[in-house]
Design brief:
This protein has 256 residues and is of the alpha/beta class. The chain has eight helices and twelve strands.
Amino acid sequence: MSDRGLRISGLRVNVAGNSILKGIDLDVEPGRVHALMGPNGSGKSTLAFALTGHPNYEIESGSVTLDGQDALQMAADKRAKAGLFLSFQYPAAIPGVKVANFLFAARQAVRPGALTPTQFRALLMEKMELLDMDPGFLGRYLNDGFSGGEKKRLEMLQLAVLAPKYAILDETDSGLDVDALRAVGESVNAMRKSDEGKDTGFLIITHYPRILQHITADVVNVMMDGRIVKDGDASLALRIEREGYDTIREEIGAVV
């Protein structure tokens, strides 16, 4: 097996004395979309935070490798520099920090000195055109007064500018209306067609399959009670849309 990939094996995670993840095995391949679905409280967001190094999430056992590197031995900022990106369910507002300055600082942090300010500005304009975004975003303060849809579109711009190796989108569809959801889907699809983003592996974490109507998943995994209990292709998400999670529970005989 190639070293390339975000590879999770036997991962067990404890939060505030409670065992939340109970042995997760999951591989996110470059250039592919992996969807992780499950009811609320199943441990999906815990996985996202544990992968990106949140200090409140204690790794009990298991391994996570990022293109062959031991990610669990890296600090959170080192994981980001190694190519891991997390799109938050509820992005924070930072009044006083302009979007353009934030994006330049973020790009410099993960790829120091790769672009001059002039080159970065050209890249930013290219990505905003690709994502059909108003350049007026750049002069606003980070997420300050943004609508839910604007926050998500800005995260998609961050994703396009940083061009990570692996992107975790944690409930990106939460609270979005139909138009905003479509815009997020179009943004991800546009990035995947670009030269920088074509090899990015995506882990899309979601409760509802709505976002998967706009982004086709190569693999769908279902998590319940801290375990991955079923996997399949995009048709599994459609089945969950029709029948809900109860039929999955009945199939696996899970008590959740």
